[in-house]
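Batch manifest line 848
LIGAND: adenosine-5'-diphosphate
JOB: complex structure
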Amino acid sequence: MAKYTPMMKQYIQIKKEHKDSFLFFRLGDFYEMFFDDALKAAKELEITLTQRDGGDEKIPMCGVPYHSAERYIKTLIEKGYKVAICEQVEDPKTAKGVVKREVVQVITPGTIMEGSMLTEEENNFIASITPTQENFVISYVDLSTGESFVSLIEREFKDVISELYNRPVREIVVPSDVDDQSKEELAHYLNATISIEDGNDIPSEYQYLVDGLEDDRLIKGFGRVFQYIFKSQKRFLLHLQKVEYVELAHYMKLDLYSKRNLELMESIRDKSKKGTLLSVLDQTATAMGARKLKKWIDRPLLSKSVIEKRHQQVEALMSHFFEREELKEALKEMYDIERLAGRISYGNVNARDLLQLKRSLSSLPNVQHILAQIDESTIKNLLPELKPYEDVYKLLDVGIAEDPPISITEGGIIKDGYHEQLDQYREASRNGKAWVANLEAEERQRTGIKSLKVGYNKVFGYYIEVTKANLSNVDLSRYERKQTLTNAERYITPELKEKERLILEANDRSVELEYELFIAIRDQMKDYIPSLQLLAERISQLDVLLSFANVSETNNYVKPNIVDSHVVNIEDARHPVVEKVMKDEFVPNNFNLDENTNVLLITGPNMAGKSTYMRQLGLIVIMSQIGCFVPAKFAELPVFDQIFTRIGAADDLVSGQSTFMVEMLEAEHAVKNATQHSLILFDEIGRGTSTYDGMALAQSIVEYIHDQIGAKTLFSTHYHELTALEESLSQLTNVHVEVDEHDGEVVFLHHIKEGKADKSYGVHVAKLAHLPDDIINRANYLLETYEATSALREQSSSDEQLTLFETNDQPPIQKNVDVINELQGVNLMNMTPMDAMNFLYELKKKLD
Ligand code: ADP
Ligand code: MG
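JOB STATUS: finished
ARTIFACT:
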């Protein structure tokens, strides 16, 4: 074992407790890192790696200056790392031996509070997952806003991921016995840092957080994330709000796939907001509102009355154009009250923050006044009682200076007139300065030296400066020489020094006093944290409702009629995102699924608009259930409990799953969990495998949904053969997308009509894309050949199949099954004619 210096021993000791973090070890004006931390940090932060004598070996070391540490910490956090801040906790001057050091805070992706590291319009959640006997408890906290939630998930691990997806969760705390694969899946799907915590105690002074939670599993689940925060932050967490139990049964269930496929908040292509439902709906004016909107989109409601209440609120705001405009302007004046409250609790607000808070509160009476004009009681009374906010406003208005600096230790943050003693210090300082300012003129007169100057510097304080040419006029009985420059001499006088002492003393005292007064105001503010959080909640609701009203008006949305029966009846429906791009070009379509129509089987050529039509319904349902109006002329909809999707060719390349596998996983998830009240959107399922495989699967899936589930289902397919199902499945109806064709040219009308499409137009689309004529002609020829062969095959298939599969309910003969499997597995395109002959020969032998 190597011998280390006492300080390195101390480092190693502390590092042991913080293995999963970069340990920022305070040494004078630097945070230093050693060993592996240093090697890794040098790379991640692009800083110079050096080394240090640590006993009998050289130790890799790198460091960042204390003053610019925040920038480096931010970089590491953004990369998903954690940083343990280790400070000197005793004065190095008085310390005996090695200065005592302690980790004072662990900064982690899920626990950041610094404004510069947070995204304004996004929550920053840290979640915990606690497996219990037969289900999971998830809890998540946004430390910057103080919100805490807990839910019980009665299903599988996959549902945990779906629930947290889109949330945005930066860090996930799990018990140490969670297996590696689960950890990897969490990190992968949720892009989060994984941390371990086995404790789940909630100290008695924080018990109120879980008041009202009865289920012990929920309390323990929250306890895990709480313990982790508590241990890493090492400070009071006054702003944490009572844990809200989210009963998942009250919200529409959207699995991971649907959240992703419907592009609710991020696009599949580049994960940006562009092209998403969020981008259309977000006209919020505040950061609080922007975050609230995301929560609403993520959790469509299930209660008819609550949905209808939101619709009414939006309607009321829509019919008050001027009030709406005024409210929007007023909300623009609002800063992020929710996060300010969090920082007040954390003790890291400065005077500018408090001034922002004051400005935000100053517009409240106006907001209240405008709301009172709106004849919808739930809007009229949206704001809480204004009294506590008036008190806060007054406190800040008399206490905090109008143009304070960022620092709270250099004065200039408390208003004149707030505190008598402070005013006296300031007066003394002002008088002293005025005296000094007069001194120059006085001394010039007295000495007759016109160029005489009074100045100040940090080392010598105030001085009188006389150029060398004028030295003969200086009265050395009054002036005492202090400093010699090349061209001048600097002097002091006893009166000047006395004034200087008074000024500096007054300055020092007033800065100290200001700091104390500021801390007192900040502490006083802590009493108002719950009120501020309530206000933030209401303002954010108002902001989202206003946004809905604006968007609904601009885009001509209609208030949906929520019905109890199992019908979907929408006239002239549009896709909210696509219509934004296409403007007037977009062709509206109807949805008519009465009580007896559950499955629409959609056929039509590529590029006709099938996928658009299907997604459109998904988005309309979500818009309706989050309380917004919908893009249509008329809409009658039930409340859907879940939406399942299988849409588009979004290959899950990252996790290495093939399109077909993803397709089957999505289908499995849907058929297993869907109910009669769900919406299923299956877009060209079975595409990723060979024709017969795919068609067989597609058909059996439609039949299963039709017979066993009875969910409203849009099922698009390129297998025209499936349209025959209309005859055997009573609740299935064929629709197709209309195209116009003359002289071999195809024009897409994007119009959905009853009945099946007569053929596929793939080759026409290729032509539209200007593939060379040779290819198009050849393809047309091949198509005709294929169609002729498959017609032949259909004629001869029926009786032969019977002998291969089964007879009179008897189990299939194993060797036959083997042969079929082999046939299905073989890729004819890769075979030479000779291979094919041999293969056939082998097969025949097996059947003998
Ligand atoms: P499909 O799924 O049938 O191949 P898509 O739904 O992907 O077709 O639509 C192809 C393109 O057609 C879309 O990108 C869009 O530009 C256009 N489109 C689809 N539906 C409409 C519509 N209702 N009105 C106008 N254009 C549409
Ligand atoms: Mg499509």
